[in-house]
Each structure stands twice: as structure tokens, then as C-alpha cells.
Amino acid sequence: MLDRNRILKDPEAAARAFRARHAEIDLEGLLDLDGRWFEANREWERLRERRNALSAEIGKKKRAGEPTEELYAEVLRINAAIEASDTLRRELDRQREERWLLLPNIPDASVPVGQDETENVEIRRVGDPPSFSFTPRPHWEVGAGLGILDFDRAARMSGARFSILLGAGARLERALISFMLDCHTGPREGEPAYRELSVPYMVLPESLLATGQLPKFREELFHMPADDLFLIPTAEVPVTNYYRGEILDEADLPVKFAAYTACFRREAGAAGKDTRGLIRQHQFDKVELVWLSSPESSMENLERLTRDATTILERLGLPYRVISLCTGDLGFSSAKTYDVEVWLPSQGRYREISSCSNFMDFQARRAQIRYRRTGDRKVQLVHTLNGSALAVGRTLAAILENCQTEDGSVLIPEALHPYMGGLTRISPEMVSPHP
RNA sequence: GGAGAGAUGGCCGAGUGGUCGAAGGCGCCCGCCUGCUAAGCGGGUGUAGGAUCAAAAGUCCUACCCAGGGUUCAAAUCCCUGUCUCUCCGCCA
User: Fold this and answer.
1) Which of A108, A109, A390, A419 has most Cβ atoms within 10 angstroms of its Cβ?
2) What's the rounded Cα separation, in Å, for the pair A394 and A201?
3) Is residue A345 within 8 Å of A402, Cβ to Cβ?
4) Which positions in strand B are less than 7 Å from the protein's CB atoms?
5) What band does A146 get if pLDDT is binned at 50, 70 and 90?
6) Cα separation of A414 and A397, whole Å?
7) Whose CA is closest to A386, among A266, A268, A330, A305?
8) What H or E segment, with its residue span, contains residue A410?
9) pLDDT tens digit string along A220-259?
């Protein structure tokens, strides 16, 4: 949610920001509604003030043994006015709140202005795409050839966009999760390591409201109506909500969390996209990094966070690039986002494997996560950041594709050897006897 | 799932329907004192919104004692519902 005072002070700047995002926002209508709410609220407060004063008076008179009849009559009149005023106030507040919650974040000044994903700006490119003496196969063919990936049986038990990993494939997935978590939680020089969190996969609607998935993106979420719980679309939700409603100490910042979770997305708007392979699944694994930062350092922390994500790719030897999303492609809650894209040989292009964002105080305001400054003891909203490091399924796909050999084997990146029980390659002859 | 107990400020904990944003203690902040530390002494110390003000400070108003309803001129306090926590029983990975 945006800072009301900031918008009131300069509505034109906000309107410009929404235009840059191509978000259709009736800001004038909202501000009009907000103004009416504000007045209704003041009126209600004035009535309460009067009522409270009279009630106190009654108390005094009763103790003094004086008559109170006239006061009673007046209070009853005021109470009727309060009730009417309260009804109006609450209705306006409900409408106003609803619309404030649908305002997207304002892009940071450093975000490139652009229409859509074609105008995202490449920041850097690391590693060279491998050259093959043969036509590289897509990862689902590599996986099928090795007998470590099964989409057909997954579809039979769960429908489209699910997958099953077998044998060395399942092991590889587990290895990636452990490797990523170990990288982030291991000791590092100069800055604190990430603290690992293991969190619920089902959350209450208010948690999704806090991080911005609700109310706008309800159709993207799996919902269990019997209990009004939602499956998390990303670990960002439970992890960011860890400190919801709390006031931290400045000395506690930055808070750095790393969490592995499964993630669940309906992919409602993605019909026909990436229908084959591991790229777009209803359920996928991800290791997520979350920062709670002071406002002053959140932008440099976004750089750190992004570097922590790309370090994984470098240690796996996977070529990637980092792009800065332009205003037209920025996510709803984000003020600035770097996407990390990994090279997929079969597609001949880079595909998103991580998205690292600075939400500034947008989520913190919804979640009411604040901190007390050391100097003046003032309470202030934190800045929240998060990024995948990395999406496990896409990393696995990238390994199958980038590390494939002509005979259908896959060479396991060296960094993963300790996690694979010494296995250095997955070969067709290792295929299990099960058909 | 059944029975019972509870939910108050950063923490512990008191609270008779009115003078309670809430005693007391701890912690924290400022100052004093002792060569340092501890102890001691004095003062301060919730959040949000609003009014006043050029601004700040200050002062004042409104709301918040788990949440939502209700009773009442008046609710932290009484009633109802829900949520969560704890104890016991049952079931269970």
C-alpha cells in the first residue's frame, strides 16, 4: 500500500507513475472518496468527543447526587447521530481501503521507463552459452531419456502441469535445495549469513494481503474454502509475514531469511504457455531469500540480494544474464526488480530463473512491519526485499540442458558432487529397471 | 473431537462499569553520584489518526487492553460468538 500523505502531497507524481506502469487507476475518484471518508471520520470523532464529555459529566453528577435527566436526553440524541455517522464512516472506509489496496507500487527513479518486456534493460551477462556439436535436446527429452522425469504418470494422478522426478533426478532436486540453502546460510565475510526458516505452506488471507497477492491476484492462488486457507505461491508470503505487526529494533536490521518451500500457482493466465517441461508447473520448489532492511540501505541490499542469487548460477557454471525490469513490466508490489535469466540451449534464449525485488515500504505498510530507530527512537516502516535463489525446477532444467552430452548423459556440476553421493554424471545405462 | 483455564503496554503483572492508555515491577532512554563497573538517586518511556503551529516542541481530541457483535448515558471490566494459547481425555503422521 502506498503512503497516503505522499499521494495527497503530490497526486500528479503518482498519476505519472501509474501511467508509466500502464496501470489504469482512477486516482481522482479515489482521492475524492478518501476526502469524503476523512470528513466523515472527523465528524464521527467530534460526536464521540461530545458524548464522552457528557458521560463523564453524568458520572460526576451521580456521585454528587445531582439530577442527570437532561444530560441523558442529550446523550441519547448524540448517540443516534453517532450511529448514523459511524455507518457512513465505515462504508466509506471500506470502499476507500479496497481501492488503496489495488494501487500498485511506485517505480523507483532508477527503473527504466518502458512499455513491456521488450524494453527491459540488460545489466550484465555472465558465462558463455555452451556450444554443442549436436542439436541440444530440450530438458524433458533429456530427462525422459535418462528415465528421471515422468510427466505422463504425473498427469494421470494430478492433471496437467505436474511432474515426477525419479532416481537420480529426484536426488538432483534434493541436492540443489541443500546446495542452495548451504550457500546462503553458510558463513560469509563482512555480512551476516541468512537464517534458515521452514514455514507453513498454507496461509490465511491476511498474510496474502500483507505481501500484495490479495486482493488483486486471487485467481492465481489455490484456495481451500473449507478452511479459508491458501497454498502459498511463494515462500515470500510466510517468510515476510514472520514479523507481521511487530516493531523491530534498528540493531536487528537487516533481517535475512532463507527458506526452501514448495510453491503453488494456478497459472490461470498462462494457458498454452510452456506446456511442456518443468518451466511452468502448478507445484514447484524454490529457495527464497527475504530481507527486512532499513530504508537507507534497501537499494544497495537489492544489489546484494541479486548477487546472492547469481552466485548459485556461477557456482553451478550456468550462463545467465541480469535484466532490470522496465516500468511497464514491473510486478504490482515492486518498486524495482532484477530478473535473473538462465541460458536454455534448446530454446536458444535466456529464461527467468529468479526475480529479485525491492518493495520498499509497500509490503511493510500492509504488513505493519516497523522498526525503532536507534538515534531518535522513532518508529518507521522497514523495507522488504526478496528474490528466488533459485527456482529449483528451472535450475534442474537448465542443468539437464546445458550439461547434456551427445550420448544423452548429463554431467553433474562439480559443486553438486558432494550432494550427489559422489555421482558425477547421469547416464542412460543407469536407467532403473522399472519401465 | 470432548472438558476446563486463559489472552492487558518490549516483558512480568494489577485492574471495583465512570476520574484507566491503564497501578507496581523489570527492561530501555536522559541526568546525578561513586576514579571504571555494579549498586544507588531523580526524571522520562505504547501505537495510529486528527486539531492547533510557518515548522518543531508543547497542548488538546479520537481510537486501540485477542477479534467481532451486544447491554449501558458510560465497557479493559458485564453478556454472546469466533480465533489463538495452555491443561486433561480421545484420535492421529
Assistant:
1) A390
2) 20
3) yes
4) 10, 18-19, 46-50, 61-63, 73-74
5) very high
6) 17
7) A305
8) strand A410-411
9) 999 988 888 999 999 999 999 999 988 888 888 999 999 9
Instruction: Return residue ranges of chain A for CATH 1.10.287.40.
Output: 4-100
Instruction: Identify whether A280 is a catalytic site residue.
Output: yes
**Is pLDDT of A83 > 70?**
yes
- Packing angle between helix A392-402 and helix A167-185, nearest 10 degrees? 120
pLDDT higher than threshold 80 for residue A375: no
* A177 CA from B41 C1′ (Å): 58
Q: Per DSSP, what are the bridge partners of residue A290? A: A257, A386
Q: How many CA atoms lie within 13 A of A390 on its CB side?
A: 34
Cell numbers representing residue A392 in the block: 529449483
Give the model confidence (pLDDT) of A292-343 as tens digits.
999 999 999 999 999 999 999 999 999 999 999 999 999 999 999 999 999 9
| ipTM surpassing 0.85 | yes
Cβ atoms A203, A237 nearer than 8 A: yes
The hierarchical CATH code for the domain A4-100 is: 1.10.287.40
- Residue from A137, A265, A365, A366 carrying the catalytic annotation: A265
Which residues in chain A are classed under CATH 3.30.930.10? 117-430
Q: For residue A174, which of A433, A422, A427, A416 has the smallest C-alpha distance?
A: A416
Which CA distances in Å does A217 have to A208, A213, A330, A359?
Answer: 10, 5, 15, 17
Protein residue closest to B61, using CA and C1': A49
Residue length, chain A?
435
Fold of A117-430: BirA Bifunctional Protein; domain 2 (3.30.930)
Judge whether A354 and A390 are in contact, CB under 8 Å: yes
Burial tier of A234 (Cβ tally within 10 Å: 0-12, 13-18, 19+): buried
